[in-house]
Amino acid sequence: MARKRIGSGGGHDEGEGGHGDRPWVYFMVDCFMLITEFFVLSFKFKTEEVILPHKLPPGGTVPSRSQAMLDKTETLSVHVLRSGNQPMYEVMKQQVSLAQLSSTMTTTVSNGKSFTVRVSYERAVPWEDVMAVFNECSKLKIEKVGLVPLRGEPTDNGS
Fold it and tell me: Cβ contacts of residue 45 below 8 Å, gap of 6+?
């Protein structure tokens, strides 16, 4: 038979392991640990999701024929080249200067149709000559302007 010590201070029994008449403490500690473990294991960092712009064509990157029929924009091709030291612009199968290009584009756009301008250029053409076409398009408020990528090998073998 176990005896109680007098003056032991908390009324704990020696054989009971410290909590004596309070077994619910173990239950509370177990519940606290299980809830904490649940939150630790289920916690995830949220990554920012990339949102694609809504300007993709409806059929993917390959334009569909029905979309091309509904689209009422016309394509205007401009090719930039050099004749001596002067830049020349080939538009509608005519070689014109920058001033003539501006007047040609003004009369073409003034018809009320919307245009897509595609700019191509020779390798030896300075970039400022190509940018002149973009500047003219911004003056005329043509929003769809793009470059045609260069293809083939350079003629000067990289020098």
Answer: none
* 8 Å CB contact between 119 and 148: yes
Q: CA 65 to CA 59: how far, in whole Å?
A: 10
pLDDT digit string (tens) for 21-30?
A: 788 888 889 9
The share of the chain scoring above pLDDT 70, in percent, equals: 66
Q: Annotate 50-102 with DSSP letters as a single string.
A: P---TTS-TT-SSPPHHHHHH---EEEEEEEEEETTEEEEEETTEEE-HHHHH
Tokens (6 digits) for 78:
């401009």
pTM for the model stands at 0.49
Using DSSP bridges, classify how beta strands 74-83 and 94-96 pair: parallel, antiparallel or unpaired. unpaired
- Residue with token string 């080939």: 90
Residue 6 backbone dihedrals phi, psi, to 5 degrees: -85, 130
145: left (phi over 0), alpha (psi -120 to 50) or beta: beta
**Residue 144 structure tokens:** 């769809």
Q: Closest Cα to residue 112, out of 84, 72, 77?
A: 72
> What is the token pair recorded at 70?
């509904």
| Beta-carbon contacts of residue 42 (< 8 Å; ≥ 6 apart) | none
